[in-house]
Amino acid sequence: MPIRGNSLISIQQLNSQDLETIFKTAQFFKARFQKYRRIDDRVQAEDKAQKVVTTIFAEPSTRTRLSFEMACARLGVKCLGLEDLNSSSVVKGETLEDTFRNVLAMQPDALIVRYGQHLDVDQMLEAGVGCPVISGGIGASEHPTQALLDAMTIEEHFGSVKNQRVLLVGDILHSRVANSNMFLLKKLGAEVGYCTPDEFVPQKSEWKEARRFANLKEGFQWATTVMGLRMQKERHAGDANMSIDGYRDQFRISKEHLPHLDPKGLIMHPGPVMIGVDFTPEVLGDSRCKVLDQVTNGVYLRAAVIAEVLQLKVVMS
Ligand code: CP
Fold this sequence. Notes:
Layout: H1 16-36, H2 45-48, E1 52-57, H3 63-75, E2 78-82, H4 96-104, E3 110-115, H5 119-127, E4 133-138, H6 144-158, E5 165-169, H7 176-187, E6 191-195, E7 211-212, H8 216-222, E8 225-228, H9 244-251, E9 266-268, H10 281-285, H11 291-309
Parallel strand pairs: 1-2, 1-3, 3-4, 5-6, 5-8, 6-7, 8-9
Helix pairs in contact: 1-11, 3-11, 6-7, 6-11
The protein binds phosphoric acid mono(formamide)ester.
């Protein structure tokens, strides 16, 4: 199913044409904004004037929620958010599923969602809800727009994702970012490797072919791009015994690892970065570290996705 006019729940939905359109539109928006400080004038007014997007973020977020809102604002599309469920009727006992039903009954033109594990909501969204739904990260399964903005950042740095060697470091097992990246990077022709403690080795079949590195030094010597990931403590639920101290000793990316990465290489992290656990401060200060470029790209990438699902006409001239 092409993305235009439809939902984006999984990165696996996107075909090559969708990917080409999204990256081309995102790059156009970014370049256009850098030159003219606006992009709304390239999105046809009659298409967007009455569009209203709503958000439901049932898990915390800084980058994803605000960049979707920023993207809507830049496009000239209204965005109304239900971001803090503690100030919603969930605190009175309404279920998340019913919250979704009630927000959808207001007939938004698209819904942007983030939530943890919730089978009822998964099934409701899969069945279709009368408007496109964009995932802003669901449970430990997927975070498709994060993978798209990561690929945009890699392409921007190297000219192409194809043939890059991307090392994922950290809590792969519980990372929705890692899962979406795994699919997308492979589809775009990159090789994926990972470095993680035994407790966090991914179990899904898609990871079987990925190369596992015993230590960070070996991984850094192999990779053109290193992507750190946060330890997802909130998803461990007693199934991960690794202490933060034990993890930090072996898997924190620090000054001593930096010389092993290609001088023209790339260091990324989807955020939030746990400084002192994922990275030491020197890593964030390294000239190859493009964490904030990822955040910038997230606005334009998400604007491109919103334009596609709302079927807005973007005039690229
Ligand atoms: N990368 C990411 O999803 O960040 P937030 O949790 O702040 O949205």
